[in-house]
Amino acid sequence: MMPLPLRLAIVALALAALDLAGGGAAHAQGGDDAFRSQIATIQQDQLFTRSRYGRAVQERIEAASRALQEENRRIETDLEAEERLLTQQRQTLAPDAFRKLADAFDSKVEGIRAAQESKSRAMTRQAEEDRQRFFQTAAPILADMMGELGAVALLDKGSVILSLDVIDITDRAVARIDTVLGDGAVPGEAPVVPPAPEVTTGSGAAP
């Protein structure tokens, strides 16, 4: 636990920053609208997950993920059927002929697995890129809010040891971003799951 003197010192510094900005918490003359501080904090994760833009990104990624999972289950079912048929053919095929079919099937399975894993990695990259794009797009809005507050620094609240709630602007930032950016929709920006590799059953398993 942090020593009490250190806690008090940090609180004193925070209060001093508020005073330097023009009168402490300044609830007079307009309440929150009159609040000014040289230092403000924000909760980055909440900024993303609570905003309409962030929720829309998450919904698109989740929808694409569900589609990929359904596709994987369908492919698995088809491959199991093809494997059963290949096993049945073993009784009537010459060893060399069966080996060719079995090798072709194994190659197909490996190719499909690699393709599906590539799609999964692409969606993970897309999710991270969308998150980065959100913060890049929101940066000018946050900068405007800093100017309105007279703030010279905006810190992630998660990296601050101790702070006063009055300097947390997350709620106001979410509201402002929702007003300016909405859900951030751009035509054609939603993740697209490429078509699944074709899985055919029957004796045509060989290339």
TrEMBL record:
Signal peptide: 1-28
Region feature (Disordered): 187-207
Entry keyword set: Coiled coil, Signal
Biased amino acid composition, Low complexity: 198-207
Species the sequence originates in: Gemmobacter aquatilis
Identification of the protein by name: Periplasmic chaperone for outer membrane proteins Skp
An MF annotation (GO) of this entry: unfolded protein binding
Residue ranges that the Swiss-Prot or TrEMBL entry lists as coiled coil: 54-92
Source domain of life: Bacteria
One Pfam assignment: OmpH
